[in-house]
Amino acid sequence: MNHPPLNELLSKVDCRYTLVIEVARRARQLVDHARPLVETASNKPVTIAVQEIMEGKISCDRSVEGAK
Fold first, then answer.
1. Which of 13, 44, 49, 67 is geometrically suited to a Cys-Cys bond with 60, CB 3.0 to 4.6 A?
2. pLDDT for res 17
3. Dihedral through CA 14, CA 20, CA 25, CA 27, nearest 10?
């Protein structure tokens, strides 16, 4: 895999927590047979999810709910 620098990935999201959650969420979708949004030689769901975020195919927006 071409490992993208963490700084480049973090520029796509608001924080590391959001990045981890979105990669995990998308990887689960791929495991459940969702179609990949990027062409890649890898068949690993986490690798594909990271690549999709790097290419801007997935937006990572965290909603704030229930904070009082």
1. 13
2. 92
3. 130
